[in-house]
Design brief:
With 420 residues, the chain is mainly beta. It is built from 1 helix and 33 strands. It has one helix at residues 17-57, and strands at residues 59-61, 64-70, 73-76, 84-85, 91-92, 97-100, 105-109, 115-118, 123-132, 137-152, 162-167, 170-174, 179-185, 190-197, 199-204, 212-215, 218-222, 232-233, 240-242, 247-251, 258-263, 271-277, 285-291, 295-299, 304-313, 326-332, 345-353, 356-363, 368-371, 374-376, 383-387, 395-404, 410-419. The chain has an 18-stranded mixed sheet that branches. Strand 29 and strand 30 form a beta hairpin.
């Protein structure tokens, strides 16, 4: 019997390009889905790790918000080598560095509602920002490597909570509702701590040296040997008298208009420091002059708003806490038949930060804005962001927003805010 067989052969199968792209798409979608799954699984594992760490230790790390930047400010994130512009960063974590250049500042708000304003030409790092859930203790600590930082604390949630500043040879713990400052001179290896309002305890790095308690309007230095010098009382700032705050001057040529700025003398004062600027942040400065008199007369370069403040300097060279900031406005003469107009003033939103509030709004370019009698920095396009002083009591408060243009026209808005 003859056995039949089938010859080996190869058949060609033709597949259309549409089919190829279809299956490639299926594979790509499957791969993408798998990667997304891995990503969310990793995030879930990371969250679980953090939650487990909080559960095990009771410590939860918190961030600080960068809420205000003036000038050239840079940040270096922890475990990174590159400095980046602070405007690209909304939050700072433990270990992050922040650096300000000449004429630059930045404001940080921590989760405990404490406010830290970094002085020009300073370098700081975030040392602590955490809450201990075991005892509800909140801890905030900023280290100043060079330069200085201003501190304003809010109400504590617990008696053992702390808001502090550390330098290479000392540290200070500020009590609630305290306004102060910490500076470090790297060349002299010397720290200086100020309390303008409230109280603080200063601890030299040497453990055997006792702490120094500062009350309102006091300062102390800690020298290169970690020894505190005798604390000193700060002089009082003078009371500004003329021109009155929000004063208005009408002139056909401001370069021929002389403005006399005067203040009440302060006893036992050696001299006064007068600052004049076109901005409430006093950058740039039109004038910074130290002299013994209690008035100064000067001409202004142009129309517009001007801001001035005076600090007292005693025989030890100590300056007073920051005094009041006054402003005045120089406007051109207008024809009597000039058509009336209205100021556009709007509060877009009010953001609560515990006992502080950030007011965000818009007005016409050139309009001066005051919030609760505080001068507000208005940008060239009329927009503004302003942090109020902290309200000490809980409950509802009235927040007054006043706009004033170059013709002297005023407009007022009243908002209700609540501290919980």
């Amino acid at each position: 019997m003859r056995k039949s067989h089938i010859s080996d052969r190869i058949d060609w199968i033709f597949i259309s390009s549409r089919t190829v792209w279809f299956w490639l798409g299926v594979v790509a979608l499957g791969l993408a889905a798998f990667l997304i799954y891995l990503y969310y699984q990793q995030e879930k594992d990371n969250l679980a790790t953090v939650q487990q760490a909080v559960t095990n230790t009771g410590i939860e790390k918190k961030v600080a918000r960068v809420v205000e930047i003036v000038g050239d400010v840079n940040v270096k994130k922890v475990n990174q080598l590159k400095w980046i512009a602070a405007r690209e960063v909304s939050q700072l974590e433990e270990g992050d560095l922040l650096r300000t250049e000449s004429g630059s500042t930045a404001r940080l708000i921590f989760f405990d509602q404490s406010s830290y304003v970094v002085n020009p030409e300073s370098l700081i790092s975030i040392q602590k920002s955490l809450v201990n859930h075991a005892n509800n203790r909140r801890e905030v600590m900023v280290e100043v490597t060079t330069g200085g930082v201003g501190v304003a604390t809010s109400k504590k949630n617990a008696a053992q909570s702390t808001s502090g500043v550390q330098t290479p040879n000392a540290s200070a713990m500020f009590e609630e509702f305290t306004v102060g400052e910490a500076k470090y001179d790297r060349r002299m290896n010397e720290s200086q701590f100020f309390v303008y309002k409230g109280s603080a305890d200063v601890f030299p790095s040497t453990a055997s040296v006792p702490a120094v308690h500062l009350s309102g309007a006091e300062e102390v230095k800690v020298d290169a040997t970690n020894q505190p010098r005798e604390k000193s009382a700060l002089p009082l700032p003078p009371r500004l008298s003329t021109p009155k705050n929000m004063g208005l001057f009408v002139s056909s040529d401001p370069k021929h208009l002389k403005i006399k700025m005067g203040w009440d003398p302060v006893p036992a004062i050696r001299s006064y420091r007068l600052r004049v600027s076109t901005t409430s942040m006093f950058r740039p400065l039109l004038l910074q002059k130290v002299f013994s008199g209690n008035f100064y007369e000067m001409t202004m370069p142009d129309y517009g708003p001007y801001f001035w403040r005076v600090d007292s300097i005693n025989n030890k060279g100590l300056e007073s806490p920051p005094g009041d900031v006054f402003s005045f406005n120089i406007i051109p003469k207008h024809h009597e038949d000039a058509s009336p107009h209205d100021i556009h003033l709007k509060v877009n939103k009010i953001i609560p930060f515990g006992h502080y509030f950030q007011v965000v709004g818009k007005t016409d370019p050139g309009v001066m804005v005051y919030i609760n009698d505080e001068v507000v920095e208005v940008k060239g396009d009329g927009s503004f962001k302003h942090f109020t002083r902290p309200y000490e009591s809980t409950g509802k408060h009235t927040l007054a927003v006043v706009g004033r243009d170059l013709s002297g026209l005023n407009k007022s808005l009243y908002e209700t805010v609540e501290v919980k």
